[in-house]
Specification:
The complex is a heterodimer of chains A (about 270) and B (about 300). With about 270 residues, chain A is an alpha/beta fold. Chain A is built from 8 helices and 11 strands. In chain A, the strands form 2 sheets. Chain A has a 7-stranded mixed sheet, sandwiched between helices. Chain A has a 4-stranded antiparallel sheet with strand order 2-1-4-5. Chain B is about 70% helix and about 0% strand. Chain B contains 10 helices and 2 strands. In chain B, strands 1-2 form a two-stranded antiparallel ribbon. In chain B, helix 5 crosses helix 6, helix 5 packs across helix 8 and helix 6 runs antiparallel to helix 8. The two termini of chain B are about 35 Å apart. The relative contact order of chain B is 0.12. Classes of the chains: A alpha/beta (about 270), B mainly alpha (about 300). Chains A and B meet through strand 6, helix 3 and helix 5 of A and helix 7 and helix 8 of B.
């Protein structure tokens, strides 16, 4: 990964609380005292059982929902300012492509909303479609593409404004295992080419281990970060998924999810 | 990577033109069937006692009706019944179109307001629904009465405007309800996506909400068009405005004893009016859904 010299963390979350229906009978503490710093160019995964608040954390970072207490900074800007300035791109489990637009014009959407000229945004979109290897499908309609291809269009769209940060909420969750592994490799390749910081929400332990520099393990009721598992797999390739380091990482994350620390396994776990 | 799921399976699915031709043939077969049944009932009625009167005065033969097309409107007149009906139908069509346009515009504006401000949805929707429970017949004289006191400078409010108003009044309702549902249709994910792009409210409306509402808008337009036509004809009758097919229906119905087939020519005019409205909406449908997956089309 690149070593971009900035005075700011890519993402900085300080003492973050998210409480739904605060003060009423059905009060739910979705996030309690979250502290998280992400370095520029780092790939981190948020993993945990349903209801642990990992998606909520992603949404608070993206200012799609507000924080109850605490602060979120993206590249030194507060979350609302970062959203206004388009400092992040986002991709969800559903590709959420607009049926009435061609693939190219879906990728153009964020640029169009920014008021970029027709020619420039067309060029940019075609460039991105090349990056996700879908140049041949630029003028197709989204519903003519397979699920994996739609998700690649969604990734291209999230990169449209060239944001330093990508927020990804289980983007491969609805794909079959084979497509999923291909998409993971593709995502890593895109990351290398574009040098983005990524926060990736997932349910899958192998996926988190394979993709990340760091896996953040979360636990529900109240949603909180319990463990941070650093992963040191180096350059990923076809064989990475069968190495001992990979298995050790998977074991470490699994143990952390169970609430135990695997003392014997090589990657150390930082108890919080 | 996986192959695209092909949207075009030629050979299995027919082209739009082919499907169009086939549906026209089916429609013609339907007309033939109705004619045959009509004549069959008449034929049967000449042998046995049927609960309906099948005499030539009540149920003229189909060929008598066709014949009546070319009859003069009144004895010695140069205009044929057909000409009179066509011109009356065109007059009604203009009124219905005007009412439809006003109703659709108003319906969409209302839906946008209700979508944008939840307060208005709670406050307005009950009135919108209540507005449709007032019978048209009760409303017509009221509107004519009120309308007679309105004048916009040089433009004078005529009863024709009242008829148009009533057509619009009937047309706006299905549209505003359908459009409201459509505007509320975008998925939570699409809305979050737009929010992440810091989209302004008007961008939200034009780039997401309006395009998403099309599948809801098309059936609503169909209902609205029908409502505008029915509204026009019924309002013409109840306000007694001259020139339209509604008035013609009443006039010709009085002549059934002497010319039983004449009223049916006016009925055909009313049917043509309905068909014209349906054709207009189908054209709108084709235009609006041109970019959408073919499965989603009704």
């Amino acid at each position: 990964m690149s070593s971009v010299q900035t005075s700011h963390q890519a993402v900085d979350v300080q003492g973050l609380w998210k409480i739904f229906n605060e003060g009423s009978n059905n009060e739910v503490t979705a996030l309690s005292d979250i502290n998280l710093s992400v370095k520029p160019g780092e790939f981190i995964s948020l993993i945990g059982p349903s209801g642990c608040g990992k998606s909520t954390l992603l949404r608070v970072i993206g200012d799609l929902t507000g924080a109850t207490r605490g602060e979120v900074f993206i590249a030194g800007e507060t979350a609302p300012v970062a959203r206004e300035k388009q400092l992040y791109g986002i991709a969800f489990q559903q590709a959420a492509l607009f049926d009435w637009r061609t693939v190219r014009r879906n990728v153009e959407l964020p640029l169009e909303l920014q008021g970029l000229g027709k020619k420039e945004r067309r060029e940019r979109a075609l460039e991105l479609l090349e990056l996700v290897q879908l140049s041949d499908f630029a003028e197709h309609r989204p519903w003519e593409l397979s699920g994996g291809m739609q998700q690649r269009v969604a990734i291209a769209r999230s990169l449209a404004v060239d944001p330093p940060l990508l927020l990804m909420d289980e983007p491969f969750g609805a794909l079959d295992e084979m497509t999923r592994e291909r998409m993971q490799n593709e995502l890593l390749r895109i990351c290398q080419e574009t040098r983005k910081t990524i926060i990736f929400v997932t349910h899958s332990i192998p996926e988190a281990v394979y993709l990340s520099d760091r896996v953040i393990v979360m636990s529900p009721r109240p949603g909180r970060i319990t463990h941070t598992v650093p992963i040191e797999l180096g350059e990923r390739n076809e064989d990475t998924r069968e190495t001992d380091t990979f298995y050790a990482g998977v074991t470490a994350v699994r143990e952390a999810l169970r609430g135990r620390s695997a003392s014997a396994s090589p990657p150390r776990i930082e108890e919080l | 990577m996986s192959e695209p799921v092909s949207g075009k399976q030629r050979g299995v699915t027919r082209t739009r033109v082919q499907r169009g031709v086939i549906s026209i043939l089916w429609a013609l077969a339907g007309v033939v069937l109705v004619v045959l049944m009509w004549e069959a009932v008449k034929f049967l009625g000449s042998f046995i006692e049927l609960p309906i009167n099948t005499s030539d005065t009540s149920m003229p033969h189909v060929w008598t009706m066709v014949d009546a097309f070319s009859n003069p409107v009144v004895r010695g007149s140069d205009t044929t019944v057909l000409q009179a009906v066509v011109s009356a139908t065109l007059t009604s069509l203009k009124i219905a179109l005007g009412g439809f346009t006003i109703g659709v515009t108003f319906g969409i504006v209302l839906a946008v307001i209700m979508q944008r401000f939840a307060f208005f949805e709670r406050g307005l929707l009950p009135f919108v629904i209540a507005s449709q429970t007032v019978p048209l017949i009760a409303l017509a004289p009221l509107i004519v009465g009120l309308g007679n006191r309105i004048s916009f400078g040089p433009i004078e409010w005529t009863t024709t405007y009242s008829v148009m108003f009533i057509a619009a009044y009937l047309a706006f309702f299905p549209l505003s309800v359908g459009a409201l549902r459509g505007l509320q249709a975008p998925s939570a994910t699409s809305l979050e996506l737009m929010r992440s792009y810091a989209a302004r409210p008007n961008q939200m409306l034009w780039k997401l909400r309006f395009p998403s509402s099309v599948p809801y808008l098309v059936p609503a337009l169909k209902v609205s068009a029908a409502a505008a036509v029915v509204g026009t004809v019924v309002a013409e009758i109840s306000t007694g405005v001259k020139g339209g097919v509604g008035r013609l229906l009443i006039e010709y119905a009085r002549e059934t004893t002497s010319q039983p087939a004449k009223v049916y020519v006016a009925v055909f005019g009313a049917i043509a009016l309905g068909l014209a409205a349906a054709a207009l909406v189908s054209a709108l449908d084709l235009y609006l859904t041109r970019n959408l997956p073919k499965e989603s089309q009704a």
